[in-house]
TrEMBL record:
GO terms for molecular function: catalytic activity; iron-sulfur cluster binding; metal ion binding. The keyword Ligase does not apply. PANTHER family: BIOTIN SYNTHASE-RELATED PROTEIN, RADICAL SAM SUPERFAMILY, GLYCYL-RADICAL ENZYME ACTIVATING ENZYME MJ0021-RELATED. This is Radical SAM core domain-containing protein.
Length: 361
């Protein structure tokens, strides 16, 4: 039976352990490299992520300490290791998995996505010894005549020599039902636990490729591909009848409206300053004042406007003074001159993306 989860997704049987934590915002997203042996036409990675870079969530990583700190801010209970293909930089990936396990214990659940192209028995043994709990294979399913596909399929078999959860993860590509069925049967025959299916989405980088192949968005407001969700549901219904796998259809709405929001809420608790309000969506809301001379403005607000110092914070990097929303509202009415007041809303992430800015009169 296909059932709708509380997270705007669909499932057959139970969700993989990695997904259970992810939908609740409890998984650190550890991107260990943008390098990949493949070039899929639907790859959504941005140009700068296709380089040999490392990120923990939105934080650029220079050392293991950055990864540990980001996991602590998120109060993460696990990590999803992704790329590119993390096996393209295997030693680095192994180092981070081992460090996370040492820092947070064996119960810190780590799953990893790979094409399978580099999943030799020797490489998989290194991942297993580092503490990897779950591995998800995404072979070149929609290009079955490639030499790489044949290597990937053979390498997937190596994963069953180890005591971890093995599954697949593929996009739901309209017109590819038979290939998706074939992969589900292949995994089931090996004794895999699950197959994750992702609703296909447009991104800045795959837009042209998808449009050229005739794919269209479901609406002007959505990045989801028309027919992808329906195909995913069809596969789940077929899979429930014909295989013993668990299935999870991860929707575009889950990623945007549930998983991200839950992660932001967890992070906001640990990064919010006393003058910031945490919104229902997990963003930070507060007032700011902008002026050419921040020190002069700060002195004026404390001495002349009699604003308590603990309510004010000079953010030199962004060229502003931050304060509670109520204080900004009052000052905007009382202070004359070239001082500009705003109410802003930001993500509590490392890059602090601003999602709203309201000018005050």
């Amino acid at each position: 039976m296909v059932w709708e989860t509380p997270y705007l997704s669909y499932a057959v049987r139970e969700l993989p352990k990695g997904c259970q934590l992810c939908v609740r915002g409890e998984k650190l997203v550890l991107f260990t490299t943008g390098k990949c042996p493949r070039d899929c036409f639907y790859c959504p990675l941005s140009p700068w992520r296709r380089e040999d870079v490392v990120y923990a969530n939105e934080r650029p990583v220079k050392s293991v300490d950055d990864v540990i700190e980001e996991a602590m801010i998120q109060e993460a209970k696990g990590a999803g290791v992704t790329g590119g293909d993390p096996l393209a930089r295997l030693d680095r990936t192994v180092q981070y998995i081992r460090a996370l396990k040492e820092a947070f214990g064996e119960d810190f659940h780590v799953h990893l996505y790979t094409t399978g192209a580099l999943a030799t028995k020797k490489n998989l043994e290194k991942l297993y010894d580092a503490g990897l709990d779950e591995i998800r294979f995404h072979p070149d399913l929609f290009n079955p005549n490639s030499k790489l596909f044949k290597v990937e399929i053979e390498n997937i078999k190596n994963a069953f020599d180890f005591d971890w959860d093995v599954g697949g993860e593929i996009p739901s590509v309209p017109g590819q039902f038979e290939r998706m069925k074939w992969y589900a049967e292949f995994l089931d025959s090996l004794g895999a636990k699950f197959l994750n299916v992702n609703e296909l989405e447009f991104s800045e980088t795959n837009l042209r490729n998808l449009l050229d192949r005739g794919y269209r968005p479901i609406s002007d407001e959505s990045s989801a591909i028309k027919g992808s969700l329906e195909l995913g549901l069809k596969l789940l219904e077929w899979g429930e009848e014909n295989t013993s796998l668990s299935y999870h259809l991860c929707t575009a709405k889950l990623k945007d409206a549930v998983q991200l929001r839950n992660r932001l809420r967890r992070m906001a608790r640990n990064v919010a300053k006393p003058y910031m309000e945490i919104t229902e969506d997990g963003t930070l809301r507060f007032g700011i004042a902008e002026y050419d001379d921040l020190d002069e403005l700060y002195e004026f607000l404390v001495s002349e406007a009699e604003v308590p110092e603990e309510w004010l914070h000079i953010n030199r990097e962004k060229g502003r003074i931050e304060m509670p929303e109520e204080v900004a509202l009052e000052l905007a009415e009382a202070v004359e001159g070239d001082v500009r007041f705003f109410i802003v809303e930001e993500y509590p992430t490392f890059d602090r993306i601003e999602v709203e800015r309201i000018p005050l009169p």
